[in-house]
Design brief:
about 260 residues, mainly alpha, Glycerol uptake facilitator protein, about 80% helix
């Protein structure tokens, strides 16, 4: 029991920081999907090239862990409000869908029959209960470390251990190759990872008593909405300035021609 009490005894400021970090980094904006796209493309190319180092690199830039833990947070808070759960599920679904489409396109255009069955690809087609155990351990680690800022440097190692993007990219390769064995095996590994992380993170967040921090989650979501709105306004202003400059150049050229 004293060990469980340690989770509840974490400082409120650290718990609040955890909630804000999950919701801010899991916001489905341009930056988020930009990184998802790059990590998926990188993982797909690494699998096709049979390069473990490239695949590892793809794991480090993928922000997929945040909406996954956001789902866990939403499940903990759903008795009061389903806003967090709905937002995180939506982001996670869109992420997986976008990543899958990109991996299929990349594998179709840049791969061939030999590349579709490299050692790196086939290694992610044999699901095991050990994949679930690894996901559970990694989920327990990252859920706790996000509430302990001093352990932030260890997060990249957890990202590598969980390996969420490579199985997704493997599914895309399987679809491009029209290989049911690859699709089935990689899908099972991805689902085992998702289930293991979400399930354990729910337990950790319950021990932290995050269900009572709903107001912090609501505040973070509102702040992100305002931030996105301001960014859209700034982008629209820049786009308008560019259009004005282009029109000015065209008019100037017409005058010179006359």
């Amino acid at each position: 029991m004293p060990y469980f009490a340690r989770f509840r005894a974490l400082p409120d400021k650290d718990k609040a920081s955890l909630i804000r970090k999950l919701l801010q980094n899991g916001t489905p904006d341009f930056d988020y999907f930009y990184l998802i796209g790059l990590s998926t493309l990188m993982a797909t190319l690494g699998l096709l090239l049979d390069s473990g180092s490239i695949v590892i690199g793809s794991m480090l830039i993928a922000p997929l862990m945040y909406p996954i833990l956001g789902v866990s947070l939403g499940l903990v808070m759903m008795q009061e409000d389903i806003q967090v759960l709905h937002r995180s599920l939506s982001t996670l679904t869109k992420s997986l869908g976008a990543g899958l489409v990109l991996s299929v396109i990349a594998a179709f255009f840049f791969g061939d029959a030999a590349m579709y069955e490299t050692a790196e690809v086939l290694a992610r087609t044999v699901p095991s209960h050990l994949h679930l155990l690894v996901a559970m351990v990694a989920g327990a680690a990252v859920a706790y470390m996000l509430a302990r800022p001093e352990w932030g440097d260890a997060l990249p190692g957890v990202a590598i251990a969980v390996a969420l993007i490579p199985p997704l990219a493997t599914i895309g390769i399987g679809i491009a190759a029209w290989n049911a064995v690859i699709i089935k095996g990689a899908t099972m590994i991805l689902l085992l990872n998702l289930f293991g992380i979400i399930a354990v993170a729910v337990i950790i967040f319950l021990l932290m008593n995050l269900s009572e921090k709903k107001h912090i989650a609501e505040s973070a979501i509102k702040q992100e909405a305002i931030k996105n709105e301001n960014e859209q306004k700034a982008i629209a202003e820049v786009a308008e300035q560019i259009e004005v400059k282009e029109e000015t150049v065209i008019i100037t050229e017409n005058i010179i021609v006359k």
